[in-house]
Amino acid sequence: MDYLLTEEQQELKKLVRRFAEEKVRPRWRELDEKAEFPRDLIEELARLDMFRIFVPEEYDG
User: Fold this and answer.
1) Most buried residue, 21, 23, 32, 42, by most Cβ within 10 Å?
2) pLDDT of residue 53
3) pTM value?
4) Are 38 and 31 in contact (CB under 8 A)?
């Protein structure tokens, strides 16, 4: 079994890391204190298509 990430998975990982570094990290204290994830960040994740379901092509994805 191959446990290495595919190229697509590696790109997704980079995208998520960049989002966390640029959008979440600067606000981590505020997010932690309020114990909430603000709507603007949710909307940004949606814009980045992070809420879609990832289904491999072999399963008709």
Assistant:
1) 23
2) 72
3) 0.73
4) yes
